[in-house]
Amino acid sequence: MRNLLLIAVLLISCNSFAQVNDDNTVKTRLQNKYMQFLREEGFSPSIDGDGDVKFKKEGSIYYLRPTKDALYFKIACWLTNSNNDHSLKIFEAMNKTISNYKAVQVFLVDDYSDVCIQVSNYMASEDDFKDIFYRLLSIVVDSKSFFLEEYNK
Known about the structure:
Helix content is 49%, strand content 24%. The protein has helices at residues 2-40, 88-100, 129-151; strands spanning 46-47, 53-57, 60-64, 72-80, 104-109, 114-122.
């Protein structure tokens, strides 16, 4: 009985390890694709500590955020919430941005110290990100400007 239990635990552990390894393989493959694409488009990308692909556009930093799902594409930017503001004002700016830009997610992270503005999209194939990159990037850029305007009113 102990041997059966030991075998079951080992099989479950091996399966979990294989899943983590597969997830890392997908993320690494996507990082490489994103880096190559951005270089071809004239950007100077790098990989940050979280594994996101970081690049600059017109002085602002943006991130392509690879996940274990190769068919899910995300572009994001972060704004520093220097006052750790979690007042009605910041939530109103977030809500107005979300309602004005239907595909955008805006949320507070890291104990309210940052605001994340993100657009994500499912794709039919993992190379489809090339076809939607500029459209999604423009949505993030525009929604970031809109959010800042609303917040600073």
